[in-house]
Amino acid sequence: MTHVFHRHLRQTPPVAVGSHGMFIRDAEGREYLDASGGAAVSSLGHAHPEVMAAMHAQIDRLAYAHTSFFTSEVAEQLADELIGSAPEGMSHVYLVSGGSEAVESALKMARQYFVEIGQPQRTHFIARRQSYHGNTLGALAVGGNAWRREPFAPILVPATHVSPCYPYREQHADESAEQYGLRLAAELEAAILAQGADRVIAFVAETVGGATAGVLTPVPGYFKAVRAVCDRYGVLLILDEVMCGMGRTGSLHACEQEGVVPDLMTVAKGLGGGYQPVGAVLAQRRIVEAMSKGSGFFQHGHTYLGHPMACAAALAVQQVMRRDGLVAKVREDGLAFGRMLADALGAHPHVGDIRGRGFFWGIELVVDRASKAPFDPALKVNATVKKDAMSRGLLCYPFGGTVDGRQGDHVLLAPPFIATRQDLQEIAARLAASIDAVTRAAAAATAR
Ligand code: PLP
């Protein structure tokens, strides 16, 4: 009998007792190759000695001091590190305990900014369908995962959702990628105008979509067109890089590859690599200055803001990543990983699409490649892939996104950046075996 409120109340997962490098070990002595970094969290792998040493040193020095009384050396150092490598114009870092907190903070920062500059009528957010921004109520309100939103919809702040950038399902056959991106930007513009251009606070988007439709990479020019639309109406652009940021896609920030600079950007998972719960909002100077010259106070806060232990872990993770050139490694090995996945799964009859960048890949499973029809959700294909993969000693991150108004099946891969080519090959091979076994059984059940 467990007293832990597990997410699945009728199942108790295996007990994790140890970890090292690319592996997690359970109480039965089984070792799992970590192909998803948990939920795209582990960037340096497990039990990295330098990160552990930095945490030990920090706990001996200062474990906690509330930010209403003090700042800490380590929070200042982490903020310097992040601003030193941030997109142009970013001047301040708001340090929180995770992704949802980062998104909540960014939403409130954006709202307060407009209150401070005399535009309090701006009350509305626009975001995208098939997106995920976290499970707290504000983050859930801008999120566009229909299943996650459904029970809570009546208690969410209003937000408008426009189309995601999802070429596999939504790009028309007769339009180029560039035309598709412009069509989406025009849809955003229409949504802003429908709301009233002076009533919109921000457009919120994951630069590369993550945990709803299995890694959605933007088409070329999409974000530049989105940035132009936002600028035309004074709407802020909030990019959520909680999952896709901090090196995951082969550049430190995913937006670098799009040639755009957001007004606010959230990061989390890869920031601390799982060693501590930590997240951050990076803010443009003009937003911070408006608040500084106005009320002088951000009307928000949490008990564990800038927690010294979290900052120490994140600082060590980021320093090791920089010293070891891991972002460049992810970019290079990511291309090889994409080829391995294509070799292992590209011709599979139930693999509709393989897409990604760096160490961030999504595989979309379908009954039929020609029609792109998803499996019946009752077959629980994604959950079964996860279970089957675990039985083969592989951790991948499958989930059901919404496809054409119903759940679809996706597998997300986000291995730690330390993965060798041999590890990547092993991941592709074990995953292919799982996907093959599970989808063939599901297809047979579909045909009956
Ligand atoms: N934003 C994005 C893009 C995410 O992928 C997630 C988590 O998966 C979140 C926000 C929420 O982060 P957390 O689970 O740390 O609250």
UniProtKB/TrEMBL annotation:
Keywords: Aminotransferase, Pyridoxal phosphate, Transferase. The lineage of its organism: Bacteria, Pseudomonadati, Pseudomonadota, Betaproteobacteria, Burkholderiales. Pfam families: Aminotran_3. The keyword Hydrolase does not apply. Its cofactor is pyridoxal 5'-phosphate. One of its GO terms (cellular component) is cytosol. It comes from the Bacteria. This is Adenosylmethionine-8-amino-7-oxononanoate aminotransferase. GO terms for molecular function: pyridoxal phosphate binding; transaminase activity. Belongs to the class-III pyridoxal-phosphate-dependent aminotransferase family.
